[in-house]
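Entry 12.
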Amino acid sequence: MTLWLYLYFPTLQLDAMYLHKEKPALPLSIIDENKNEIVQLNSSARTEGLQVGMGLGTASSLCSRLHVKSYDQTLEKRTLTRIAKWLYSVTADIALCPPKGLLLRVNNMLTLHQNLDCYWQTLSQHLNRLPFNYCYATGYSPHMAKILAKQQINHITDDKAWLLKQIKKQPLSSSDLATNTRMRLQKVGVTHFSHLLALPLSSLAKRFDVEVVNYVAQLKGNTQHQVHFYIPPESFEQYLELYYEVSSSNRLEKPILKLYRLLERYLTLKDKLATEIELLLQQRDAEELTLCISAIQGEYKADKWLQLTKLSLESSILSAPVIGLTVKTKRTISKYAQGTDLFYGPQGKYTSKELIAMLIAKLGQHSVKGINLEEDYRPEIANQLCSPLQKQLTTKSTDINIKQTLRPSILLPSPLPLREQVTLLPYPERIVTGWWDEYQVARDYFIARTTQGKWLWLYKDKNKRWFVHGVFS
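Predicted 3D structure (tokens):
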């Protein structure tokens, strides 16, 4: 028979929220608006006498300081997916059981571990790195493992007799049977699983519908339970809900760092580097703000990403308070794809790629460019903007070598008419080219000095008009 492990997270939404640990914990509850009752509580709320299942009116009368958040099943399913993706690196065959459970098939993993205890030790150590409270139990059917986990048995075993004994102790209210079906069973004295399992399946089939018969058969492991296993995507995406609204970008650093630490763990396990990530700021009553942050050299450390994010936030304006954060990886590369020159040695605090990444984060992707040379005599075409750190053109010895000619360090975007007195230096340079395209030029270039001592790069066109094309620094 197949051994299953069920992980139950009773306070999943509460644990997934970002709470300010520096402040004293206030009583906080998660309310199901459909039932108008409490479904999750923190320790401070329990100290005030509040309990799960209590109505909102009663809870408010007992605790005037109570903070309330609406229950969000979509958020819990998203968090479950995050946990499953985290566990996938140490165990396979994980099934999502929303809103608060994960089902794991154990048998296939025992071939990689000495025994069940070693498997659970590896799994629990990995799971404990996440800030979620959980209960657990094993069973020889998904129903059995789920019932024992929700009853907080918190025991790992493959002893069939012990597991069956524990199941018989549990009340029928902990099953997944419909409420009407449970009420019909209770009317004939079936209140615990010991009563239900003692009845022959033929008798159950005569008095109850097929749902009860199938449930008992699946509980015993006699029939197959259909399970859809989770397959994680090859990317990182994490959402963090804030307990309070944030109107200042400076106060976002700590929750952002929490997400980046999860990103660092993910990239470390995958042996990858992220070259571009996307930070989404969910704003109350406003469109979300998207920040694209790049690291050309590839990065995985949380503090490095936070440093780049701070520079991006300085030039961003929040139009409304932030209530949630999302981090996504846009591009990743292998950790060993980046090569470095062993003999180049350290050149400063930052490498060229790190410096460019900081400039892009500060000024924006479109504001940081490199300069490349083209094989053309025309100055406007010979100097072209390109992406940072793009390899420059190497000209052949038989072609024009622009590097050997004297050129100004500042080339004007477009030539300006000469309107001041200058002194020309000898040895002009004539450029007559471009006859093969629509941009033909015929110019005589000179180096000139103004009366104020400024050095200019001038040219005279075929109509004998003078223009300033560049300035020597």
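Annotation: Confidence is low (pLDDT under 50) at residues 395-399. The chain has 15 helices and 20 strands.
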